[in-house]
Design a protein that fits this description.
Elements: E1 8-9, H1 10-17, H2 21-33, E2 38-40, E3 43-45, H3 56-59, H4 64-75, E4 83-86, H5 90-99, E5 105-109, H6 112-118, E6 124-128, E7 132-134, E8 139-141, H7 143-148, E9 154-159, E10 163-165, E11 169-172, H8 175-186, E12 188-194, E13 206-209, E14 216-220, H9 227-238, E15 242-246, H10 276-282, H11 290-293, H12 295-301
Parallel strand pairs: 4-5, 4-9, 5-6, 9-12, 12-14, 14-15
Antiparallel strand pairs: 1-3, 2-3, 7-8, 10-11, 11-13
Helix pairs in contact: 1-2, 4-5, 5-6, 9-12
Length: 302
């Protein structure tokens, strides 16, 4: 249970991590000693300004050019007639606007914003999860959302989050959102993470997708001085995550970002999905050359 002050109860933490309250209480004390969280009566919160995440109005004005470029590139991975899941977020909302042009598509989502972007698409079927509306990001969460995803199987999941590191993977600062995102991941053969460079190297409270389950990362090119983002990209590539880098300026008319702006890396881990090779060729993500493998390394050396 998440309380009004943002605290998460020890009982709920024990349920999420599947361990005893005694173990959680011990770990909470250790994390408090290191300054990584603050204890509350029967629960814990992140310290300082990390207790609450930014709402949709704030997020929608951050890194807008980068999100547009990422959405343009990610849309090229989707085939006509595919069934996919799309999670909540401002970047996934941008993706949904482009998916409206893909005929025969079926999109399962817990995001009202994603559904709205696709509401008037003639040949796209939108399937909403159940659940309780979380007003800060217009997403359906809770047990109703998770249960509605049981038994579902689609080709790809497109997810965003609050932070991404090679060590923990994708994470978010809200426990309810994290639980639904994990259910979305379980429904997909491949997981595509959409994250702009400001999220690289950022670690938040609740893990949603561990690194070994991330098939591909679509991101933008970090600034030359951003060593943290470049280092994190290299670490993700070393763990086998395929990385596609879009130009922050995007392309007019929603076209794909030029191939020279991308850095695909080998290493899908969740099995081959029919049409993947054709998609890679169509999107300019063909078999990586030695030069392409060094793309992320070049970013790090700047």
């Amino acid at each position: 249970m998440v309380r009004a002050n943002g605290a998460v109860s020890l009982r709920e933490l024990a349920r999420v991590v599947q361990t005893s309250e005694v173990t959680v209480r011990r770990d909470v004390r250790a994390l408090e000693a290191e300054g990584l969280l603050d204890r509350r009566h029967g629960g814990a919160v992140l310290p300082g300004g990390f207790t609450r995440e930014s709402g949709f109005p704030q997020k929608s004005h951050l890194a807008t050019a980068e999100k547009t470029a990422i959405a343009d590139l990610a849309a090229g991975l989707v085939e006509e007639g595919e069934a996919i899941v799309v999670g909540a977020g401002t970047t996934t909302q941008e993706l949904a606007r482009r998916l409206a042009r893909v005929p025969g598509l079926t999109v399962v989502t817990n995001s009202l914003l994603v559904a709205q972007a696709l509401a008037h698409a003639n040949r796209v079927e939108v399937v909403m999860t159940g659940g309780t509306l979380r007003g800060s990001n217009y997403a359906l969460v809770g047990s109703g959302a998770e249960q509605s995803l049981q038994g579902l199987r689609v080709s790809r999941a497109f997810l965003s989050g609050s932070g991404l590191t090679a060590e923990r993977g994708l994470s978010t600062s809200n426990m309810l959102s994290a639980s639904v995102d994990r259910a979305l991941v379980q429904a997909a053969a491949e997981v595509v993470v959409l994250a702009d460079h400001t999220k690289l190297g950022t670690d938040t409270m609740f893990q949603t997708v561990p690194t070994d389950l991330i098939t591909r990362l679509v991101t933008d090119e970090p600034p030359a001085h951003d060593d943290r983002a470049a280092t994190e990209l290299q670490a993700l590539a070393d763990q086998g995550v395929q990385i596609a880098v879009a130009g922050a300026s995007g392309s007019p008319g929603g076209e794909q970002v030029p191939a020279g702006r991308r850095a695909p890396l080998p290493g899908p881990r969740r099995g081959h999905v029919p049409g993947t090779s054709a998609l890679r060729s169509a999107a300019g993500l063909g078999d990586p050359t030695t030069a392409e493998r060094g793309r992320v390394a070049d970013l790090r050396r700047r």
